[in-house]
TrEMBL record, chains A, B:
Keywords (A to Z) from UniProt: FAD, Flavoprotein, NADP, Oxidoreductase
UniProt protein name: Ferredoxin--NADP reductase
Native organism: Sphingobacterium paludis
EC code: 1.18.1.2
FAD/NAD(P)-binding domain location: 5-291
Residues the record lists as binding FAD: D33, Q41, Y46, V86, F121, D286, T327
Gene3D superfamilies assigned: FAD/NAD(P)-binding domain
Cofactor note text: Binds 1 FAD per subunit.
Cofactor: FAD
Keyword field contains NADP: yes
Reaction(s) catalysed by this chain's protein: 2 reduced [2Fe-2S]-[ferredoxin] + NADP(+) + H(+) = 2 oxidized [2Fe-2S]-[ferredoxin] + NADPH
Family of the protein in this entry: Belongs to the ferredoxin--NADP reductase type 2 family.
Lineage of source species: Bacteria, Pseudomonadati, Bacteroidota, Sphingobacteriia, Sphingobacteriales
């Protein structure tokens, strides 16, 4: 049995920074993440991609940010259960929690922090015949590495920002890009839609509005996608790869059964401490929502700091919290 | 007349980061700061001090953080009026503002953002005879450079965290440290108070509780401080330097007359966009307050991001704001 003060579900940038803020207040953390390494989507999906909006870094590669955060929290000696999903949560008589993972790891803690980010969601799948047949090798619910599509023939489906942005981006990478959308107007940003219309006019992409997906077709590899237009005519779009970008839906797994208030795809929290409707359970980062919420890493950092000030009362019920600046006191580990 | 979208009062780390977030939304910024250089208290008070709680930087010197932030906002070409105080604010018929500085600079903008931080406050001065006589050379309301006090005899006054922390720190630097407090218990953190008691017991500092300051004394330089104890007896503490640490009081200057809601030393704001009670005026960073507020640079960064999302409607009233990630789109300047 692991004894800790705070059990953090999710070891992405926000979960990792919570370790730092907790450490300043002498609270120990154990992190559990379904991925085999720390860093969340930064390490899993775009480790080599530059990020531009981390304050103080004109640009930093995603993995480099995670590496730096690991150095930053090293003095506080966090412990990890990686490659393990949270299975059970059991409230103890004294108010503390027992968290159990899918490999049987048992973690006893005073406070649970959900920092599951995108990992708590799964892509919305299109309703198209033969999807499962080609899903493994030829269907991509997110663009992890654009180079995979260099000189390929691809079909993107969707009408939001992801679909528009990747259409614009991949127009310069792929051999041929077809964008399919069931409606005749886009939900995404007007200037992105503008760019897509321009590319279509210039013949640089193939734009199919008011078309519905019918079937993925091919003998062994994917070859084409069968569509149906407004006039109920069949249309065929050649495709080596199919990229449906229909957004995400929650995949909270057992967390969904804890009784947390969920608003659309996110856990509702208070803005003063990012606590959920259940005492001692907090949610920070992309998994939470509150008025004005922006899914930015830098917002998750702020949420982690305020959350720790609030969680302190459960870890040290007898102590008065006093706030200190690291510039005066430095970082005093355990 | 300078025409800009957002006029930012204060060019510290939070004001500077607001330029970045505004720039992502194609809003231009002009910054005005009473200090002769950017960076706020980081550059003015502790440029060489390491900061430990900037996410992604295990440690970074204050000036280095500011230098990096200047690089980060360079693509957005902010303009500056440095060494100038805001004097007037005039609402125009169309809702926009005309800001005038002490040197006569006129700035026309759609939105005003107060990011004045500590610069909007001044130290509380003790009521002690001869203060003004020694104020210039021998009285210090903040410790800018501890090395100034190496091998000197100093008297610190106060009962909060600043007084306690600097007493502990300077005990190893100065020749002799006397801590004077009018009460017999401290307001600061219990563990800091504990350290001070220990140092006093070990004879490493001179602790004078329940003593009141009476006068600073000396012929040309400061030589001693006259105090009075509980029994109304005179006590003399030798002193080359006097460091009264009684906290700060607001020094909002003309801003105080704008009708903003002030709570103690800070401007009250909403947590969803950090707007004040006056439309088109926002307050971010150490100058604002809201439930759960922590005076951390990283919180100011978050506040800057949410503020810009809200300010957009005044700069582009006809446009729908669409939120984009820099990882997908990069940083597109003007």
């Amino acid at each position: 049995m692991i004894q800790t003060d705070i059990c953090i579900i999710g070891a992405g940038p926000v979960g990792l920074f919570a370790v730092f803020e907790a450490g300043l207040l002498k609270m120990r953390c154990h992190l559990i993440d379904v991925l085999p390494q720390v860093g969340g989507q930064l390490s899993e999906i775009y480790p080599h991609k530059p990020i531009y909006d981390i304050p103080g870094y004109p640009t930093i590669k995603a993995q480099e940010l995670i590496d730096n955060q690991m150095l930053q929290i090293a003095p506080f000696k966090p412990t990890f259960s990686l490659g393990e999903r949270v299975e059970h949560l059991e409230k103890q008589e004294d108010g503390s929690y027992l968290v159990t993972g899918s490999d049987g790891t048992a973690i006893h803690c005073q406070v649970v922090v959900i920092a599951g980010g995108l990992g708590c969601f799964e892509p919305r799948k299109p309703d198209v015949f033969n999807l499962s047949l080609f899903e493994k090798a030829h269907v991509h619910y997110m663009v992890k590495d654009p180079e995979k599509f260099r000189d390929k023939t691809i079909v993107i489906a969707g009408g939001g920002d992801s679909a528009l942005d990747w259409t614009v981006f991949l127009a310069n990478v792929a051999k041929q890009v077809t964008l399919v959308h069931r409606s005749d107007s886009f939900r995404g940003a007007p200037d992105s839609a503008e760019k897509v219309y321009e590319l279509a006019q210039q013949g640089k992409i193939n734009l199919l509005l008011s078309h519905n997906l019918m079937a993925l077709e091919g003998t062994s590899a994917l070859q084409q996608i069968r569509l149906i237009n407004k006039a109920k005519e069949e249309v065929f779009a050649p495709a080596d790869h199919f990229i449906p970008l229909y957004g995400l839906s929650p995949k909270l797994g057992p967390i969904a059964e804890w009784g947390l208030t969920i608003d659309k795809n996110a856990i509702e929290v208070n803005t003063f401490d990012y606590s959920t409707n259940i005492e001692r359970i907090y949610a920070i980062g992309d998994i939470n929502t509150y008025p004005g919420k922006l899914k930015l890493i830098l917002s998750g950092y702020h949420e982690a700091a305020l959350m720790c000030q609030s969680a302190f009362k459960y870890v040290y019920p007898e102590q008065k919290l006093s706030f200190k600046y690291t510039t005066v006191n430095g970082v005093n580990a355990f």
